[in-house]
Amino acid sequence: MFTGIIEATGVVEAIETAGSNLVFTFSAAFSQELKPDQSVAHNGICLTVTEIAGNHYKVTAIEETLKRTNLGQLQVGDKVNLERCMKTDGRFDGHIVQGHVDETATCTSISDLNGSWEFVFEYQPSSENVTVEKGSICVNGVSLTVVLTERNRFSVHVIPYTYEHTTFKTLKINDQVNLEFDIVGKYVRRMMQV
Known about the structure:
Distance between the termini: 27 Å
Number of helices: 3
Helix content: 10-25%
């Protein structure tokens, strides 16, 4: 389990094809602290560390993960948001994040608000996923609060610290991001359908 509080950004060092999978090599400041079988969220996607060598480590993304996320669009040199799994004795600073991406969204607008930035995202109109005003959303692994919400569109405001310490500072209009909708909202929606 994760909280959506980003620890560091990592860099894609290599991408290899292995059947229908992609094997990514990342470098990160905490690489030497990792161990095989450990879960790390990459842009909000929980992936298992399979190998470590110095400040580099490897993870494998299977076909299902590649279909649901923006991982397949990564290129060598790209940065990703990283978070190690939550420690049981740690503070719960964000919200419940599973590392299971529901779908991707497109960034449609970025506005400098002279103290924060507004990002607007649109996702598939056919999606059953929902956001609520002042509810939680995980965008590329970052726990954020929904500001405005419509049927398949929502906005978030990003403070300067988050902007500088995550990949939000490199996000552009038309970029694809990973979304994990609030787990409580997903259960409520499911109960309403029964």
